[in-house]
Amino acid sequence: SFAYVDTLTRGDLSSLSWIQAFSPTTKAANSLTCEVSYASLNFRDIMIATGKLPPDALPMELQGSNDCVLGLEYSGHVVGSGKRVMGILPVKALATRVTTEQEFMWEVPESWSLEAAASVPVVTALLTTPLSAGEDSAAGIAS
């Protein structure tokens, strides 16, 4: 089964709930599906959930949507291989399963817990993107 976390009442954090839904079926050729073990609830999620961040702050294709819009980063296991990974998405990481391009998913070092790994992707992207501007630095993981 597939579920995601969202507020039942926009602006009311106490209404954060798991919502059962149909599992997304579209999958790009270079993407992997991950069973999510941990997902971070970060500042942008809180701002969206409390209604303090306007809808136009979301990606254009999600504006006005009732779908899952919370969650940027996650960690878990790749379906099929069981590989421990962490990753980043524009939205929808606060879910039981995510599908994303391999370039936005990285293997979790053995010495890290999946819990700790779920807090790393956004910080890594914020720190490395300015440093790698103009380079082809999207290494991702091998399937």
Structure description:
Strand 1 and strand 2 (16-21) form a beta hairpin. The protein has three helices and seven strands. Helices cover 15% and strands 28% of the residues. By secondary structure, the chain is of the alpha+beta class.
Order of helices and strands: EEEHEEEEHH
Number of helices: 3
| Oligomeric composition of the shown chains | single chain
The largest sheet has its strands arranged as: 6-3-4-5-7
- Poorly predicted regions: none
Give me the count of strands.
7
Helix content: 10-25%
> How large is the radius of gyration?
15 Å
Distance between the termini: 24 Å
Beta-strand proportion: 25-35%
Give the overall silhouette.
globular
Instruction: Report on the biggest sheet.
Output: 5 strands, antiparallel
Broad structural category? alpha+beta
- The whole-number mean of residue pLDDT values reads 83
Q: What is the topology?
A:
Blueprint: E1 2-7, E2 16-21, E3 31-39, H1 43-49, E4 73-78, E5 84-88, E6 97-101, E7 105-107, H2 114-117, H3 121-131
Antiparallel strand pairs: 1-2, 3-4, 3-6, 4-5, 5-7
Summary of the model, kept short:
The chain has about 140 residues and is α+β, with helices and mostly antiparallel strands. The chain has helices spanning about 45-50, 115, 120-130; strands at about 1-5, 15-20, 30-40, 75-80, 85-90, 95-100, 105.
Provide keyphrases for this structure.
5-stranded antiparallel β-sheet; 28% strand; globular; two-stranded antiparallel ribbon; 3 helices
